[in-house]
Every structure is written in structure tokens, then in C-alpha cells.
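Hey, quick one: can you model this chain's 3D structure?
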Amino acid sequence: MGRTCLIEEDHVTSYINGLIRNRVVAEVGIVIGRLGVGNRDFIFSLAKTPSVEEDVASTTSSAQSGAKGKGKKTPPGATKSLALDVDWMESHAQQVSRMLPGGIDVVGVYVVASESSFKASAVQLTEAVRAVAKSAMADSYGRVDPDKQPLLLHVNPTNTKYTVRHADLGAKLGDGLNPTEYKFGIVMNMFHCVQCVYHVD
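Sure thing. Here's the predicted structure for all 201 residues.
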């Protein structure tokens, strides 16, 4: 039986719909979820990888609404590869993974982009997924469990089409991105939140 990816409907779709309403043409970031629960993987939330500097154009080439002339929109029909800073994405994944509670991990990369931009950036995206996996999913020896293949979520903002792929870390760059079945659902209620308060005198 093949693997299935379950996407948190409330958090993920509302975030993506917000990007589309704001006419964001491209954005990349990390996927937060959980891998290897039986034959299922989970996507709980998305976290945009910020630009390296606030006054520099975002590495995701996002066109923010109301930007008042800052940045340029991609001309219609133009095919352009995404501007990915793989090292920065790796650092972002590492920082986020340190803040997550037990049972929730950084499990891959997401990209909002046209189909043509996605295909033009296949090698860079594969490199980014591998870097994120190495940074956030590896054990103390730098090894990633081969049974836990990181995810690459692609959303086309033109038609809101979702595609989920598992990344084969052993394949050459640009290859090994295998589409997988996905479903939407409410999955966050499977977790229990435990809080502890320490009073220090």
C-alpha cells in the first residue's frame, strides 16, 4: 500500500487562500507536520521562509499586495525559476525545529508558484528539500531515516491545484520527486497539549 498525506484543512488551506487573495505569485517556506504515522504523513502548517534582510526583496519573489511600487511583478506568461537561498532555508528549518513541541517536526518544503516556474526550479527545490531534511530531520550523526521521506508541497496559485511529492534523498538532483496521494481533513485535534508552570522564587 502506498503512502497517503493528510493535510490540515483549517490551517493550510486558509493560509494558501490568503496568499491567492493577495495575488502572491511565488512563495517558498517549510512544511510543519509529522512523518511515518502508519502509512500516513501529516501536514499541519506552513511557515514562510523570510528574506535575509528586511529591505531586500524576498527570496521567494512574492508580490505583496499594497506594496506601493516596491518590487516587480512577473509578467504574465513569463517562465522564471524561483530565487531560492538554500542555505537560508536550511537555517530557517533548523531554527523552527528547535521551537516545535514533541511530536511535531519540520518535514519538508512548500512552494506556491506556477507550473512552469516549478518545473524550471526542480533542481533547486530538490536541493532545498534535502538541505531542510538534513538540518531538521537528521539524527545526531547526520543521518535521515530512509523510511521518512521529506515532503514537497506545490500549490499552483492560478488554479489552486495542490500536488504533494515525496523526495527520494538517494536520487540525483532534479529527480526523485514522486507524487503521492493526499487528502484534506481536521487533524490537529489528534494532539493533546500539556502545560507545566514553574514558580521560581
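One thing worth noting: The CA atoms of residues 126 and 174 lie 6 Å apart.
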